[in-house]
User: Which sequence fits this backbone?
């Protein structure tokens, strides 16, 4: 804006007086001449026009020009720069510069002054500490800088430039201040709105705070702006000026809702100014609850899905297509009424008596309008299964026939089971040529294939009459150690229930430990202590016959055998067991102490092996005795030095062997049973340095052990020595 100050009294001189009727003209030599009045008037006008032209040209050369922007925009808190550009023929020292601002009331207030000798910021103003002025002589530019711009700084500022010769000029700029508002908020009503309200109902309110200039709020429904000021829509804005000078704006929307508004989204758009443009922001979207009356009612069975059977729980749902909370629902079945809570009715453990027509009635308590809907329910049933006959007693070899039926509203399927195993399909069970295996419990299962879990069961008990039949166990020949207790069990089938008696081979009756009658027969048990070999009999009998089963028990004896011989020859004592051992071994096992093991072979083989072993030992004893009588052993041919004997003749082990792969029973020196192996091994053992052959005489009867000792020595002694040794041996034993 540029304003020029000129001397307007020179531009518009007063008109000449009316009495002037004559004019003077200048000749070429300068002598004035009088002319007529009209001519004089024309010459006067020409002179006056020339004088005005000269004066105008003189004043144009003497003007100061100032130019400024119309406005400067800045955000609150930032720095603003207002530029003042001027032109003048005078030097900078002949210029005076001043800055002013215009208050809200239109008053001019100086804030800065500068001339050739002075630069001064006016004191006691709101700009005293926040402004500074920079002058650029080359570009004839003056810049006013204002820091920390506030809302109150939105004023008009004046730049005035005064020249000593060129006059005075000023320019004006408006400073515009902006502040971005806070994020807008929206709040919808929490209660529902009825569509039949006669006046607009409040939907919600939007608010935006601390903006400058004042922000603008626009309401939207489903992306379409809402226009207010009508009978259907009311928008009520309100503005608050905060102590900071900022604006807070609030807008409240009210309208008459429709059913379609139940799904509508409402929100607000806020527009506000910033330096150089306009900005926009939106609130969150809200929904409102719209209550509208029903025009129809529907009722249906929510569960179970599909067909319904007796014992089920039925869940009814009853809904209208409206949603007014004032609606009341009732379900009727015949003359009976059921109150509906939360649009749901549950009937538990239903029967076929609850078949039929169900009607749901709805009444709006606001408008008293009544509506109804209906559905039909059918409850399927399956009556208990009936088995005929329920209990059957039948003789072996006859034919079994039984039937099973159950009345149902749907097609059924029948199956027969025994011990969990399927035995027959169909309503009739037929078993030909029955045996004891046929006896037991049969379960008839009737199901409805169309409905899961719909089934009925009944039991048929079959008893087969006949003589007792003992179920033979896997093992009836047993072996047990002496003094141990053995338990024998006997399982007998038969009807009537057989009587069971336990006896021994000699007819002795054993006391029964326990006896139980079970579905598959009678179970009897006896316990006895093993003292020797024995045979026990399980005897079962009833009116149709008898049966018996023998248990053979072999007694096992564990023994240890060792032979010791003491000699007094040359006043020394020797032990036979340390140098000469009779070993009876099984397979490749050799020990000084033999242990009897239980046999798993048959009794006949064991007895045969024992007889063979006894015969072999008898023959051996006879040979030794014959040699003794002939004097071939034990001192019959004179005395010999034992130290001269070879180690191969000193110690001999007798071992009986058999090619039979079956186990054998071994005999000790005195005929005791030692090992199960049928082997006798005769081999030398390591001699004892203190062993000597004891002489025997024919006057004494040597024992079998003495003969073995002599035979192992393999030397002869004098008759006297033999007699002495025999006497000492007799005293010892």
Assistant:
């Amino acid at each position: 804006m540029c304003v020029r100050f000129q001397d307007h009294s020179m531009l518009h001189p007063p008109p000449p007086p009316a009495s002037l009727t004559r004019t003077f003209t200048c000749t070429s030599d300068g002598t004035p001449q009088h002319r007529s009045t009209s001519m004089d008037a024309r010459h006067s006008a020409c002179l006056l026009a020339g004088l005005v032209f000269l004066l105008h040209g003189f004043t144009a050369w003497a003007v100061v020009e100032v130019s400024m922007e119309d406005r400067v925009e800045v955000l609150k808190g930032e720095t603003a720069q207002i530029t003042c550009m001027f032109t003048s023929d005078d030097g900078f020292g002949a210029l005076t510069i001043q800055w002013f601002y215009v208050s809200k009331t239109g008053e001019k207030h100086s804030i800065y002054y500068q001339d050739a000798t002075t630069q001064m910021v006016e004191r006691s103003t709101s700009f005293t500490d926040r402004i500074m002025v920079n002058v650029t002589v080359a570009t004839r530019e003056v810049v006013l800088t204002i820091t920390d711009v506030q809302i109150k700084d939105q004023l008009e500022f004046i730049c005035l430039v005064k020249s000593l010769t060129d006059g005075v000029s000023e320019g004006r700029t408006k400073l515009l201040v902006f502040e971005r508002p806070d994020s807008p908020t929206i709040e919808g009503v929490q209660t529902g709105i009825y569509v039949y309200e006669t006046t607009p109902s409040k939907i919600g309110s939007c608010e935006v705070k601390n903006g400058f200039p004042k922000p603008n709020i626009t309401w939207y429904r489903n992306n379409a702006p809402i226009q207010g000021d009508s009978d259907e829509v009311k928008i009520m804005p309100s503005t608050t000026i905060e102590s900071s000078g900022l604006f807070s704006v609030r807008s409240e929307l009210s309208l008459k809702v429709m059913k379609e508004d139940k799904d509508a989204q409402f929100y607000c758009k806020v527009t506000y100014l910033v330096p150089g443009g306009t900005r926009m922001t939106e609130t969150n979207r809200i929904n409102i609850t719209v209550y509208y009356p029903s025009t129809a009612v529907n009722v249906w069975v929510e569960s179970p899905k599909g067909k319904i059977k007796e014992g089920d729980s039925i869940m009814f749902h009853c809904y209208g297509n409206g949603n007014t909370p004032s609606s009341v629902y009732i379900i009727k079945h015949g003359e009976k009424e059921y109150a509906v809570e939360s649009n749901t009715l549950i009937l538990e453990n239903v029967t076929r008596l609850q078949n039929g027509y169900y009607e749901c009635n709805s009444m709006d308590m606001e408008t008293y309008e009544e509506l109804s809907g209906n559905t039909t329910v059918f409850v399927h049933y399956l009556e208990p299964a009936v088995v005929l006959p329920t209990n059957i007693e039948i003789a072996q070899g006859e034919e079994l026939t039984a039937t099973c039926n159950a009345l149902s509203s749907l097609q059924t399927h029948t199956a027969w089971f025994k011990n969990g195993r399927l035995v027959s399909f169909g309503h009739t069970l037929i078993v030909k040529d029955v045996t004891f295996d046929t006896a037991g419990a049969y379960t008839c299962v009737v199901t409805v294939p169309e409905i899961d879990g719909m089934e009925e069961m009944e039991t048929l008990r079959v008893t087969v009459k006949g003589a007792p039949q003992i179920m033979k166990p896997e093992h009836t020949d047993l072996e047990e150690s002496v003094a141990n207790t053995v338990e024998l069990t006997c399982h007998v089938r038969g009807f009537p229930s057989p009587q069971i008696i336990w006896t021994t081979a000699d007819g002795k009756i054993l006391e029964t430990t326990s006896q139980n009658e079970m579905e598959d027969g009678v179970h009897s048990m006896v316990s006895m202590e093993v003292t020797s070999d024995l045979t026990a009999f399980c005897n079962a009998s009833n009116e149709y016959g008898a049966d018996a089963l023998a248990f053979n028990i072999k007694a096992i004896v564990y023994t240890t055998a060792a032979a010791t011989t003491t000699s007094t020859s040359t006043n020394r004592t020797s032990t036979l067991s340390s140098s000469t051992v009779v070993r009876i071994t099984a397979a490749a096992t050799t020990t000084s102490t033999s242990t009897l093991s239980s046999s798993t072979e048959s009794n006949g083989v064991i007895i045969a092996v024992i007889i063979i072993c006894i015969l072999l030992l008898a023959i051996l004893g006879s040979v030794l005795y014959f040699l003794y009588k002939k004097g071939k052993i034990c001192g019959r041919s004179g005395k010999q030095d034992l130290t001269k004997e070879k180690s191969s003749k000193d110690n001999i082990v007798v071992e009986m062997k058999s090619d039979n792969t079956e186990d054998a029973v071994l005999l000790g020196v005195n005929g005791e049973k030692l090992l199960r192996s049928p082997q006798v091994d005769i081999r030398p053992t390591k001699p004892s340095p203190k062993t000597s052959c004891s002489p025997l005489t024919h006057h004494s009867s040597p024992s079998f052990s003495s003969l073995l000792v002599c035979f192992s020595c393999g030397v002869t002694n004098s008759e006297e020595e033999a007699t002495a040794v025999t006497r000492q041996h007799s005293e010892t034993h």
User: Anything to note?
Assistant: Confidence is low (pLDDT under 50) at residues 1-60, 561-601, 634-726, 728-733. The chain is about 10% helix and 40% strand. The longest helix spans residues 603-630.
